[in-house]
Specification:
By secondary structure, the chain is mainly α. It has five helices and no strands.
Length: 153
């Protein structure tokens, strides 16, 4: 299996090639949209702490984990080992599942707060829902292509 991983098609990039190779270039978009979700949830009113607490946890966890993986890939910490391909696929599958659950809960919280809250708060939550679903889509696409890379390694 080592020759397949070393052939380049199924190995992880290192250095700044992380920003040019698909699906790893999605790290940047996941970082941006995950950060937007975090900012919007942190700045909005919290009428349902349990639901929005989960959304906050997911956005912070995925933001920190994505940033950590991105920095480790840029530094080349993976050293071309196949176990990092498994880690990448597993992380993006978990992140996609987390973000999907958080997006659904944030949409429900936004629907439930339609009456009785200010126009600004309601629209902040709508923006958080939209960006959360965009982040979910990015993580799902990254997970699918990471699983394809894992399968071919």
């Amino acid at each position: 299996m080592a020759p397949a991983a070393a052939s380049g098609g199924s190995s992880l990039p290192s250095g700044f090639s992380v920003f040019t190779i698909f699906p790893d270039l999605l790290f940047t978009l996941e970082f941006v949209f995950g950060g937007l979700v975090w900012i919007l949830i942190a700045s909005s009113l919290v009428p349902l702490p349990l639901m929005q607490g989960w959304v906050m946890f997911v956005s912070v966890f995925c933001f920190v984990a994505t940033t950590t993986l991105l920095i480790l890939y840029i530094m080349g910490a993976h050293g071309g080992e196949a176990s990092w391909i498994t880690l990448d696929a597993a992380y993006h599958c978990v992140a996609a599942l987390f973000y999907l659950s958080a997006s659904v809960l944030e949409a429900l919280a936004t629907i439930l707060m339609h009456d009785g809250f200010t126009y600004k708060s309601y629209h902040e939550n709508i923006s958080a829902v939209v960006f959360s679903y965009v982040a979910t889509l990015l993580y799902v696409v990254h997970a699918v292509f990471s699983l394809i890379r894992w399968k071919s390694s």
